[in-house]
Fold this sequence. Notes:
Elements: E1 5-9, H1 16-22, E2 29-32, E3 43-47, E4 52-58, E5 65-71, E6 78-79, H2 85-95, H3 100-105, E7 114-119, H4 138-144, E8 149-154, E9 156-161, E10 166-171, H5 177-187, E11 201-208, H6 212-228, E12 233-245, H7 248-259, E13 263-268, E14 272-278, E15 283-286, E16 289-292, E17 295-300, H8 305-316, H9 319-337, E18 346-355, E19 359-369, H10 376-383, E20 391-392, H11 394-404, E21 415-420, E22 425-427, E23 433-437, E24 440-449, H12 455-479
Antiparallel strand pairs: 1-10, 2-3, 2-13, 3-9, 4-5, 4-8, 5-6, 7-8, 7-21, 9-10, 11-12, 12-20, 12-24, 13-14, 14-23, 15-16, 16-19, 17-19, 18-19, 21-22, 23-24
Amino acid sequence: MTSLHLQPLPYLPDSATLIKLIAALQGAVCLDSGVTRRTEARYDILSALPCIELQQCRQARSDQIAISQRSTDNPHWQQIPAPDIYSAAADLHQQFQPSKQLRLQLEGQPFAGGLIGTLAYPCGQDIRAGYRADYQTDDAAILQQQPDAWFGLYQWAVIVDHEAQQTTLFILPACPLATRTTVLQLLTGHAPASEPASPFELTEPFQPLTSKPEYAASFAQLKNWIVAGDCYQANLAIGFRAKYRGDPLPAYLRLREISHSPFSAFVRTDSGAILSMSPERFLSVNRQLVTTQPIKGTRRRSSDPAEDQAIASALTHSPKDRAENLMIVDLLRNDLGKVCITGSIRTPELFRLHSFSHVHHLVSTVTGRLPDDVNPLTLMAHCFPGGSITGAPKIRAMQIIGQLEPVPRSIYCGTVMYCDFNNRMDSNICIRTLLCTDQRIFCWGGGGVVADSRCEAEYQECHDKVAALMQHLENSSKSSGLQ
């Protein structure tokens, strides 16, 4: 049997060159720390050409699901018997588990091969949990055609360690020979010159999929439910859509230069790509230690240093934002408590200010410990979707979201994640995330609504959260003369 291939590669502080190489391949995934110096942004993990893929899709106008699989040996999707994507992924994870000796050789890397995938916001929902099948618009129909979930089984990866300033390629012994050959040729400069990615251009500007009067009506209905005691908080989002041509990869490379988000990701899909500039970690598992870091509380930054400091101080001391954050912390403590060891849940940080390129956020940290015999995928199944983008209580908030938002969220508020052969998992919350599919590009901005929220402020916050991303793509397209 072929042995484990471990090879150092030249280190570069910015992984853009590697992303360009790898993201051109089928099934490419680039988990990207966003060229930032944050402690949580130590690694970039890049791979492509999964040997097996799984996806979960809905039957038309129904909440009934089907699980399908394809492989390098059989590239056509074929339905398989499985109750849900988590069970199918866990079975695949166990089936391809390498030897303990081999796993120990890769213990120093954050990812040792395994599953990388995406969960869209509707994953796991049925009608009772807020899933809605009766959307009417063309945009909604396109979004509902996207898989609820997708996983690839990856037998190789490039790991960029920005703290140690090292880049490492590993290829597991079970990696198919054709994939191994392609990867080695690509990363050692012996592959034939590939065609450059076709330029990405918007062919029309972004348009909101919810008008201001429509948002105001939804906001009023939500406030009525809050007053009636249906929920304490619910996240209400606005979707935006433009049309584009070209390859989404150049758009991702441009956006990462302005966002510097520690949980960014580029995922190549069958119909386009996912471009995530997420600042938010969802669930992380390392040696059974669970960490989640919800964001609740946002202010747009100012270019004036004194004003920016005042804005940050106002956010830090805002009773409303702190109360919203605390509600979500309590929700996540409850979600983690369903799976973690009793008594292990801790909250080491509350309301910590994190400042990003265009916004300030309040971030808290909740931790727990998984039992030794529990797979991290089980934790994900119990906690998904993240409470910071649903509300409290969670199920009622999700029902309200399904009733009030005019298009499905798709990947927005879902996650890009990995679960490796050493049972380590990390995942983001797909906010500041764009979906490219069928020559349309979608993004969403949302905010938590509570009893004392003001409609105008919440409406503006939805726009503020994604304005920089949309404007950057629009300005780039205008400068090319295409609009």
